[in-house]
Structures are given as C-alpha cells and as structure tokens.
Amino acid sequence: MLEMRPDCERCGTDLPADEPGAFICSFECTYCAPCAEALDDRCPNCGGELMDRPSRTGKALAGNPASTVRHFKG
Predict the structure, then answer these.
(1) Are the CB atoms for 25 and 45 separated by under 8 Å?
(2) Which architecture, in CATH terms, is 1-56?
(3) Which of 13, 25, 35, 58 has the fewest beta carbons closer than 10 A?
(4) Helices of type H across 6-66
C-alpha cells in the first residue's frame, strides 16, 4: 500500500492524499507537479521515473490514512 506522503520533498508543498498533483517514483519519493517537471520527471534520489500518484478518497482514505511524516528538508 502506498504511504501517501503529505508533502513535496523538494519544495515542501502540501500534497493531500485525496487530491491529484503528486508524482512518485518506485520508492515513493514524492514531488509536486512543478517540481516533477523541473526535475524532468526523474527522481533525484534514485534516478527513477516520476509518475502520477493515484489519489485515495472516501472510505479507503478513512480506513488507510495518509502518512503525516513530512520529508521536506528545507
């Protein structure tokens, strides 16, 4: 199951699990759309491709909440 990280690792923008606009690599490094574009859709940590993260809504989100651990290192 995806961790659904709450923020962009590059700029700190909030990325709610129930909204589109987050991009992840296979290790779940997470970036907002502008940062993913600036990174040419490549993860700077592993070199993997950044893909659209699916959203999680309703009962799925209630039963499996998103992570609250932020990864932006500012």
Answers:
(1) yes
(2) 2-Layer Sandwich (3.30)
(3) 58
(4) 33-38, 58-63
Place of tokens 């309703």: 58
Where are the chain's structural domains? 1-56
Global pTM reads 0.93
- Note the Cα 44 to chain centre separation in Å: 14
Q: How far apart are the first and last CA of the chain?
A: 27
Closest CA to 5 of 43, 59, 47: 43
pLDDT tens, the chain, 74 aa long: 999 999 999 999 999 999 999 999 999 999 999 999 999 999 999 999 999 999 999 999 999 999 999 999 87
Amino acid code (one letter) for 49: E
